Amino acid sequence: MKKYFFQLKELDFIALLPIVVLLGFSLMTIYALSQGLATGDFSNFEKQVLFIFLGALVFLGFFLIDYRIWLGYSGILYLLGVLLMLAVLFWGVTIRNTSGWFVVGPFSLQPAEAMKFFLIISLASYFHKQATSGVTWKEIIISFVYVSVPSFLAIQQPDMGSVLVMVAIWGVMIFVAGLNWKQIATLFLVGVGILFLSWTFLLHDYQKKRLESFLEPQRDPQGSGYNVIQSMVAVGAGGARGQGLGAGSQSQLNFLPEKHNDFIFASIAEQSGFLGTSLIFLMLGLLFWRIKRAVDFAANNFGKLLATGVLTFLFFQTFINIGMNIGVVPVAGISLPLVSYGGSFLLITLASLGLVQSVRRISSQHKSHF
């Protein structure tokens, strides 16, 4: 017990500040939105409190476990993630046009969120075990297979937001692993070709409409452009100081869709204005900086790659979510880390942050490679 107490003193308390503040914003906003419902339904708020409590335990668990142990379990975790994503296609429940959820009573689990976490561990393990100064084309192809399998399964749901995040995780991690500029240029051209083929053969009609409405949302204000328009109205209505907690016509009168998860940033902007959103940006920036510090001072390549994957995961989730809330990124069904309502995503986010804390703790003790 004394040993664990000593380890708790090694937590990065600067990183804990933005985590606590962002979770506070989450609870405050979800409570205000629940209060505004005609039925006064606080079930979302109560479940989010439970998720935060469980997430805190998960965070501490991953912090206290030596991150190097996951080297031996990366294959099992990857296989588990793929099997869950495959199973959800047959036995999952459709929520928000995506058949990617297991529902047990009042709770739901989205395997794609867990797969992002498992993919980070699997790719970090793979590149670490290669132990080369650069990345060969063979390693590029094998690692691409790692990301292609869950991405293909996510497309079947369809969940293009998760596909974008998983591909981003692969791209940044393989760059850190040692891509040269010739390989980067080749992969860029291949990526352009894949985007063209995806538009032609893979994207569903409603996903194409989302992209079209992103470029010109007024073309279909009551259809594909509705979410973007209402979100931008909510953000603009907040002004400098916001309309107050529990106030705001867009969120309280249900003009704003998915106001407690995908579009919670717009809800915060409407209620707390520029001051509130500035604090959100400040806290996220502080969190990303602390994760980057863990990347820079990791004692070995595995820890560096793990922290890089987590940083990429959280950054792209943030970029896509806030971008779609203010109309600069197409709507992709992506949650805002530590703020959006949702159990599976919150637990995975806190597990990822606990993993980074483990990298930081072990690296401070062992500065040599193993």
Describe the structure.
- The chain is mainly α and 370 residues long.
- The chain folds into two domains: 186 residues, no CATH class; 131 residues.
- 70% of the residues lie in helices and 4% in strands.
- It has 14 helices and three strands.
- It has a three-stranded antiparallel beta sheet with strand order 1-2-3, covered by helices on one side.
- Helix 7 runs antiparallel to helix 13 and helix 13 runs antiparallel to helix 14.
- The chain is globular, with a radius of gyration of 21 Å.
Q: What is the gist of this entry?
A:
By secondary structure, the protein is mainly α. The chain contains 14 helices and three strands.
Give the key terms.
370 residues, 2 domains, 3-stranded antiparallel beta sheet
Topology:
Elements: H1 2-8, H2 13-36, H3 43-64, H4 74-91, E1 93-95, E2 98-104, E3 107-109, H5 111-130, H6 137-156, H7 160-178, H8 181-202, H9 205-215, H10 226-237, H11 249-252, H12 264-296, H13 301-325, H14 343-365
Antiparallel strand pairs: 1-2, 2-3
Helix pairs in contact: 2-3, 2-12, 3-14, 4-5, 4-6, 5-6, 5-7, 5-13, 5-14, 6-7, 7-13, 10-12, 12-13, 13-14
